[in-house]
């Protein structure tokens, strides 16, 4: 008697969670193209190869495991990303890749001899979704969908000057495979919020991504002795950057609760020396809202704050780069398919929004797409304590398997 | 006909200023025990060796150039530090070392045959006064004066985990010389403020160092997804650290102008990733005042701000280390000696305070000490545009030479 689907998934989940494990926690640290990322990629390769899939990498390190059921037919892609933030949870994208792998193995087995399949199957592990080591995030799916040039992506450097090309070649994960022709795309992910867990929803049917306006900001002051320079003579870039961090948080209070999220996650200071007034600070400041009106009003208010702070601290504040998108809907046909699967399986479900971006945010622009969520306890995300129950993980695998089966049999064609 | 003292000094000054020159500026970047620091040290060694001095390094990399005029007598030490902040001015400590070297060469020549000398002469280049690469600052003179243990200093690491021991050995500047016995100490430095330049003072007679209270602070929050986590759930270490930076600046306004200087020069954020709420921030926050009462009141106010911010942002704020000193006077005998020299030379002079610490701050606690300043145009310091006129540089060399001559002939014994 073999192991059940459930046991097989949980065994593999335990094995996958060991790569890049952070000592003393249940979390992981496996940023894009680091050694732990290489290890988990080779493990995934072995898992799917042993099930008869053929594994390729493309030039930006996306990993595709192909199973041809219908010679010459296009592929249903299903997957997410294995890379993580530093000291992050083990679920995030990794759950979606493994759920897709198990769904693909089961679907391939069940359809290999029935003749129902009209599509082929490909499991995908997108390169560098997180964007912590190399910017921008969602790099692999952005190149795949033509939103980012391959050359620009490969030339991107990390903080130590290592390029994406060098890092991928360093772990042996840069390939030359031609991307499979895409019929449709399916992704499952943990929610990264706590609404589903609190409302008893097992399967989230993702209907849209929040709008966002992201700014890379450079503050330019002037180096000075931080002890002896007169206070009124200083042009302190760190002080002005700090006022921006506080201003971004204060913006939230101008709108109804939950309508605006703001953050500064990254701040670099130069020269960052104990007795030197900083001459430069660079920060990444994000505004996010489900409402285009709120996002526009918050952006305008931020611009006013930037002017006020620049004048007060006699520094330059410059937007080096910005990237904005509106509330971004998923296709209704995909939502209907997912709803009918969840409903027929008796899984509590609801339409949900995603605040975070996902690789499906790119993929839905080039192919019919289904995006599913499972709950996350307390919504803990990008944190070693991220947690989803086994029951919810397994329910998500079941839903993914059935949606995948229907897609391979021609749904959303 | 040989070159004049003035031409000789300015030629050497030009040569010294080339080490670690920052392209496109008149500044330098030669942090402690980096390659440019090694180069300038070898150059100083050659300069003084060619004049008959014997050059040694001690175990913490302090460089001593000895000239024995009176066998067995103790030494008058004169010097400062050659290391710089990142992208700093070329004057700072380097001027004091070169002024001392020229003063020592001239004094040795003039006294070698007269029999007036009762002391020997040593030029000193203290290791790592700046503290930018390795903390704490004034490392070499702190070890020399017994305020810091040699073992602790050698084990200190930079941001890349390189120890002081490794860095010094890497540039071949760790020695085993026994420190010379000290009779007295003389240092000259640029002011790092603009009061002297604005008031027409050529020679500053340093009477005291401002008091200071320096804090290394750790803010502890919790990693979260910086997009999707609810704002009210966040415990953002960068936000709280930013409030501390602003609070430190705001403290200044509670006291009469010029009575309190505050700064945060260094801030490190973890994980410092674009879509992660920071779980930790570390900052160096300094308060400085000439008044003990102001310093105490500012310290109390800062503690209250820390409590308020910790409660508001639900983070931990912990003082990891602190270091405080009161207004710290120089000896009156040294001041009187310096005043009589400046007066007899017809150089405009006045008693001044130093806000910044210097190696003489350490040395005055173990030996009679004279600390001189020359003016700095606009007080620009720790900045590539730092500037002192040739006339002031040369006046400082003259004053240093005459004070040194008197010390070697027994003044302050």
From TrEMBL, chains A, B:
UniProt keyword Hydrolase, yes or no: yes
Keyword terms: Hydrolase
UniProt keyword Hydrolase present: yes
Pfam families listed in its UniProt record: M20_dimer (PF07687), Peptidase_M20 (PF01546)
Domain called Peptidase M20 dimerisation: residue spans: 211-313
Record GO terms (molecular function): hydrolase activity
Family: Belongs to the peptidase M20 family.
Name this polypeptide is given: Zn-dependent hydrolase
């Amino acid at each position: 008697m073999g192991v059940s689907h459930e046991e097989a998934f949980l065994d593999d989940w335990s094995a996958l969670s060991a790569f890049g494990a952070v000592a003393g926690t249940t979390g992981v640290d496996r940023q894009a193209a680091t050694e732990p990322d290489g290890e988990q990629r080779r493990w995934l390769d072995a898992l799917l190869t042993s099930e008869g899939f053929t594994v390729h990498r493309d030039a930006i390190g996306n990993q595709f495991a192909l199973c041809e059921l219908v010679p010459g037919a296009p592929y249903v892609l299903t997957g997410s990303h294995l890379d993580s933030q530093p000291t992050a949870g083990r679920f995030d994208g990794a759950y979606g890749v493994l759920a897709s792998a198990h769904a693909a193995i089961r679907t391939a087995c069940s359809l290999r001899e029935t003749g129902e399949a009209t599509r082929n199957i490909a499991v995908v592990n997108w390169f560098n979704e997180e964007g912590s080591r190399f910017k921008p995030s969602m790099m692999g799916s952005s190149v795949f969908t033509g939103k980012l040039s391959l050359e620009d992506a490969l030339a991107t450097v990390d903080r130590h000057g290592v390029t994406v090309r060098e890092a991928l070649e360093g772990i042996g994960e840069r390939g030359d495979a031609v991307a499979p022709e895409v019929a449709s795309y399916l992704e499952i992910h943990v929610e990264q919020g706590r609404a589903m867990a609190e409302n008893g929803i097992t399967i989230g049917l993702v209907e849209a991504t929040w709008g966002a306006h992201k700014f890379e900001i450079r503050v330019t002051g002037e180096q000075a002795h931080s002890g002896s320079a007169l206070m009124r003579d200083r042009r302190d870039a760190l002080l002005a950057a700090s006022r921006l961090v506080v201003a971004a948080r204060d913006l939230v209070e101008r709108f109804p609760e939950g309508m605006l999220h703001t953050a500064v996650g990254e701040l670099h200071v130069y020269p960052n020396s104990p007795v030197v007034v900083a001459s430069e600070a660079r920060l990444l400041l994000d505004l996010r809202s489900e409402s285009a009106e709120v996002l526009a009003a918050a952006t305008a208010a931020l611009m006013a704050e930037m002017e006020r702070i620049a004048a007060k601290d006699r520094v330059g504040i410059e937007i080096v780069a910005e990237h904005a998108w509106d509330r971004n809907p998923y296709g209704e046909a995909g939502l209907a398919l997912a709803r009918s699967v969840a409903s027929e399986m008796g899984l509590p479900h609801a339409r949900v929004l995603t605040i975070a971006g996902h690789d499906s945010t790119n993929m839905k622009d080039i192919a019919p797409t289904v995006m599913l969520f499972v709950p996350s306890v307390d919504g803990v995300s990008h944190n070693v304590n991220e947690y989803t129950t086994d029951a919810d993980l397994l329910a998500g695998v079941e839903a993914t398997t059935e949606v995948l089966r229907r897609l391979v049999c021609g749904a959303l064609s």
